[in-house]
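[job 0412] stage=fold_complex status=start
inputs:
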Amino acid sequence: MLSYRHSFHAGNPADVLKHLVLFEVLKYLTKKDKTLEYIDTHSGAGMYSFSSNEAQKTQEYEQGIAKLWSYSGNNQTIKDYLDLIKGFNQNDLSFYPGSPAVAHNVLRAQDKSWLFELHPQDHGHLTNNFRPTRKRKVRKEDGFQGLLALLPPISRRACILIDPPYEIKSDYELVVKTVANAYKKFASGTYMIWYPVVDRERIVTMEASLIESGVKNIHLYELGTSKDTEEHGMTASGMIVINPPWNLAKTMDEVLPELVDYLSVEDGFYRSVELVSE
Ligand SMILES: C[S@@+](CC[C@H](N)C(=O)[O-])C[C@H]1O[C@@H](n2cnc3c(N)ncnc32)[C@H](O)[C@@H]1O
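[job 0412] stage=fold_complex status=done
writing structure:
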């Protein structure tokens, strides 16, 4: 089943949290000169235009990046993220970078990237936006299997984003299984797992499975724009980070309340939790 298209959702509150964390982690990991490998298991199209029919149909970005665009606070992490998004735009907010674009903004000449995307059309867009090179591979293959085949990475330094659409409910279990297997092959990588809160029970189960998986040093950052509901639709989303930069928890403890202030619709909230210690 491949009906999910990220162009309907680009720039929503979930993307804001996901890309802010991704940007922060990559900035930290690229402080060392040594080659870093970036693996994006579910890349999407790479770049999005808010004038597309898809973006205009849902206008989800209005609840996310558009609300934050006028940010007047002092949080440097949020300001850095906004500068990143501004770098893809002229004066008005017209474009939004997907995870490959966020990553390539930070990656250096010595780094490598692996971009997986299964949807034929989005794979086409991705290839146009990010031409394959010797150091950049763009694959129309399953990202879960692709990740496992790449580990351990040659450089022994890697940052992995796992961002599936969760269209198939078994994706929640598959994510945990894949991460546990990946960790056995390569325990020192920084893994980032995005998740949506549509049905809280699924996330409770996912967290419990991760805690029992044997994986160490797991942190979770969640942003809810409204409280959990039994009704249909995503009300919150989170990033689970394995082996995060040492200062990420402190950074997110300062960022998350501000994101709630700007993006909450009603009864917004955040969670910043250490699921498993080092
Ligand atoms: C949430 S979107 C990715 C968004 C992107 N990571 C970003 O932040 O800009 C998920 C993408 O995964 C793709 N996809 C679904 N199943 C996949 C699989 N097994 N392997 C690789 N890509 C897949 C979908 O076509 C979709 O484009």
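[job 0412] summary: The mean pLDDT is 97.
[job 0412] exit 0
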